[in-house]
Amino acid sequence: MYSKNRTIDEIRKFNRFYTVNMGFLSSNYFGSDYSIAETRILFEIMTQGICIQSDIVKLLHIDKSYLSRMISRLCKKGLVEKRKSKHDKRAVEIMLTETGKSESEKLIALTNRRIESQITELSSDKCDKLCAALCTVMTILDKEKD
Amino acid sequence: MYSKNRTIDEIRKFNRFYTVNMGFLSSNYFGSDYSIAETRILFEIMTQGICIQSDIVKLLHIDKSYLSRMISRLCKKGLVEKRKSKHDKRAVEIMLTETGKSESEKLIALTNRRIESQITELSSDKCDKLCAALCTVMTILDKEKD
DNA sequence: ATAAAAAGTTGACAAAATCCACTAAATGCA
DNA sequence: TGCATTTAGTGGATTTTGTCAACTTTTTAT
Fold this sequence. Notes:
The structure is a homodimer of 146-residue chains. Helices cover 64% and strands 8% of the residues of chain A. Chain A is mainly α and 146 residues long. Chain A has a three-stranded antiparallel beta sheet with strand order 1-3-2. Chain A binds a DNA duplex (30 and 30 nucleotides) through α3 and α4.
């Protein structure tokens, strides 16, 4: 089918463009003290509020042992707190500490500045078009919609 | 400025969506024997034909020593061939071997199937909209345009 | 002519990620 | 109710990935 193949090519082209453009290939998340994965984990915990590790595993599709270690590390750094779940004694509830919250905020601010520097010269018209396009992509590709 | 901040938020949201959706976070490029980086390198050499390492470094923004080792590895696997450049005696020309070409083709076919499985249920109308949106994003964000 | 820059290689590491086996608790089901 | 299966998490061992700096050789620029 023609449009399918064209779409696949377009997605591959986009992936190539986007991984380089956003710097996902060289993965030191630009100067910040946190890796992409750490950043994502912090962000997810922040938006979830209180959650358990397997929530994050499902959300981010990462290895559970990897996450376990990551969480321990974030605990040691004082950004995350663990406690036994009452409902499920296997599970460990995790949440951000106050330090964790403020660090996450800083981290977000940092990425914001980085992104801002990539779009400084865009007119507000182009910004609107970009937002609309990104939104379209997400809506069309989102699996968990219905 | 309002539209800038909204745009930044939208890009961040998109990044979160896209890294998970495309599986860039758990980086074993889905069953294939090659990592994302290797895949990208093979693809670039294929599209460049004959090139030198620093071309790839510039294209993908990766560390030159990392690439150097990567290339050596791909040579050992028989996918890439090196030879001294005539014009520039510092440089090493690199190109795909026949095996390298066919492996790259297979690799592309594999990613294509993976992507296809993500868009099977899309109508051709949605495909068109998706392509247009991706294209818009690239056009607006592309730095090396002018 | 000579200093600076560019291409690539190598060593030494550090960080990231995976695989596997294991414990303990919860769930399914017959 | 009892037993098998699944789920949540941990820790060991290892591999893969990526970084940094030092060094050689060649080219470029002034």
